Amino acid sequence: xxxxxxxxxxxxxxxxxxxxxxxxxxxxxxxxxxxxxxxxxxxxxxxxxxxxxxxxxxxxxxxxxxxxxxxxxxxxxxxxxxxxxxxxxxxxxxxxxxxxxxxxxxxxxxxxxxxxxxxxxxxxxxxxxxxx
Length: 132
Description:
This protein is of the alpha/beta class.
């Protein structure tokens, strides 16, 4: 599995990286703009990410905008709905407009509240079909 971790908070990035490293090749971006660039490059190289862990509140380009643009790139390239990258929203706030928009406008697949619990993370990855 290839995973892109997108978060402007150093501690959150490291935590997710440490949790995912045993099961995934992990790449890191510190904002939505970097994430979008990495996402596009991975698709162009024929090695798309299986998972994007996306914080919503970030500088430069927030997670909501980045997610919508990622879904647009997939659509433009003809990626089938079943083959789209799974997107896990990770946020400190459990119920916000941004979170709702991530699901309804951006096509997020699941949501986890920070701090991330390893057992919950692995359970969500299994539910998404990314782990046996």
